[in-house]
Description:
A two-stranded antiparallel ribbon has the order 1-2. Helix 14 packs parallel to helix 17 and helix 18 packs parallel to helix 24 (about 405-430). It is mainly α and about 750 residues long. Helix content is about 60%, strand content about 0%. Mean pLDDT is about 80; it is low at about 1-30, about 125-150 and about 375-400. The protein contains 37 helices and two strands. InterPro entries: Ankyrin_rpt, Ankyrin_rpt-contain_sf, DUF4219, PGG_dom. Keywords: ANK repeat, Membrane, Transmembrane, Transmembrane helix. Pfam families: Ank_2, DUF4219, PGG.
Amino acid sequence: xxxxxxxxxxxxxxxxxxxxxxxxxxxxxxxxxxxxxxxxxxxxxxxxxxxxxxxxxxxxxxxxxxxxxxxxxxxxxxxxxxxxxxxxxxxxxxxxxxxxxxxxxxxxxxxxxxxxxxxxxxxxxxxxxxxxxxxxxxxxxxxxxxxxxxxxxxxxxxxxxxxxxxxxxxxxxxxxxxxxxxxxxxxxxxxxxxxxxxxxxxxxxxxxxxxxxxxxxxxxxxxxxxxxxxxxxxxxxxxxxxxxxxxxxxxxxxxxxxxxxxxxxxxxxxxxxxxxxxxxxxxxxxxxxxxxxxxxxxxxxxxxxxxxxxxxxxxxxxxxxxxxxxxxxxxxxxxxxxxxxxxxxxxxxxxxxxxxxxxxxxxxxxxxxxxxxxxxxxxxxxxxxxxxxxxxxxxxxxxxxxxxxxxxxxxxxxxxxxxxxxxxxxxxxxxxxxxxxxxxxxxxxxxxxxxxxxxxxxxxxxxxxxxxxxxxxxxxxxxxxxxxxxxxxxxxxxxxxxxxxxxxxxxxxxxxxxxxxxxxxxxxxxxxxxxxxxxxxxxxxxxxxxxxxxxxxxxxxxxxxxxxxxxxxxxxxxxxxxxxxxxxxxxxxxxxxxxxxxxxxxxxxxxxxxxxxxxxxxxxxxxxxxxxxxxxxxxxxxxxxxxxxxxxxxxxxxxxxxxxxxxxxxxxxxxxxxxxxxxxxxxxxxxxxxxxxxxxxxxxxxxxxxxxxxxxxxxxxxxxxxxxxxxxxxxxxxxxxxxxxxxxxxxxxx
Length: 750
């Protein structure tokens, strides 16, 4: 058996793309029982034969043979654990069979298959040429690289200088070894330019580009990526500009996966670089005929997902057919747009004053697309920045100094752009065949319903009216899906239909014989309930949904049973049993803690009423009876006492209540509203009474200066209570007595 000796395995987060294990301690490399002699520059054939058959005998060869079948840790942790152990054993066997020089080249690698491939490729001879003709000095690192016998350790100083941006050291190395400027200097097949780009040193990249020919800029690493592709991935706009200026063909070079640099930049959310690369990428590379439109469609999908809607609009203007083309992952722009309610007005959460600003601002979608500069040569020559166009546009609106208004303007512009994109897609959909529509549109619409994307759903139905009556594999139409996912904005659209249309939507049963009332009786998705504070309010919202749907379905539906033989009310009770218990627990916890505070206030204020500041006179009357502050003290003390008593009684009522389902609709929330309101008033009145009592005692001019800090300190507990509990009180009040989430005053939209 193989002996591991002192070497241990620790996690490695080097980011090289291979998981997880690396030797923490490298043992001294000596001949072992695995091989007769360790690997050197000249004995690879003999060494590889010995090591291979050893690994086969230890059932480790499969780990070294392929690097494409590594188990997914998230999906199959057990299989990954087995692979991880075998990988560590095989890697260790290879390492202890190498000489010190060979080990130095592979010690950072964590995947046995990669190490085996590297050593195998390193041993293969390449074509020979006369170094005098090539201009490379014999014996230099570049000459060694050209013959395939590359000792990458010779480039460590250069790589370190590139990573640190030390141009003087880099230039000195190139002067001694001129052929290394364009040579590959790392096991990953990277040139000096690759490494400088990855490090993000603009000045170093600019100097390297001056030394390289346009053809040299096209060199790819082992992943098939040019330096421009790396700049796109990392969002380095100035670096990308520098390289494009020398060779505009770089934007059209695909990596090993057939992806353009602009697509990579957009996928990473690098907006400025995406704009730059989009300007320089030839339109034919994005068109539907180039690779079946995969790059164009993928770019369009990513632009929608990352909210680069001005670019998306420009793409659709040039290539309308991309609107209905699937990207490389089989996703359509329509599907992504449906999953983004935040791109539309209904998905925005604005305060009333923000809504007022929103209504006052005007946007021009056509002008926004002018940000895409077509004359790219002038763009780089003059050093323009797209943000300048934004500034000019906002200056014209005279709102460039208002950040909030600027953000609202951008938001409204984005909404207008999304509507225009949706309109362009709808135009293309109308020219498609019915079977294709069924595949693309239905899936997108039902996803939009689940997300509450109102504008998307209404525009799609206006464009393709049959969608209003379509259903999924369970026989549920869009309003059934809206109810299941508690999307009230979609459900409210039901009231914008005629009576006949409404009955056509309400009447069907799904494949499980559930009617609309059965569906609303089912528990809401957790992501919807999580948006409501407190289990009691969650239960209240569920009851409100049930009552709303119950009010629009025919009375007969209340007694209909589904395929399980259950009525809607029975389904509701069964599905919400746990939520009722959680709501009861939540309310009792609030009532218990609040009762303690209120009872303490009652005790304090009752005692304070008979412990009068400064005492009484000979007749038993308060000495400061005629003082205004004393009157304030008495009144605030009384208010605090009565309010705290009311609060105690309300919370006791909550603790002794019957927690039936229907009690959560109004009765229990009302008690909680009264209890919390009374407690808030009692705390505020108690602080006023305290300050008034001090004012009575500190009437002298020498002590008045103390009053201000005391009053400020007295505001602290009131403020804390307001910050912690007042939002809850407001939410309960609005949820119970507010206008509600349902709107029956919907204008006819279909």
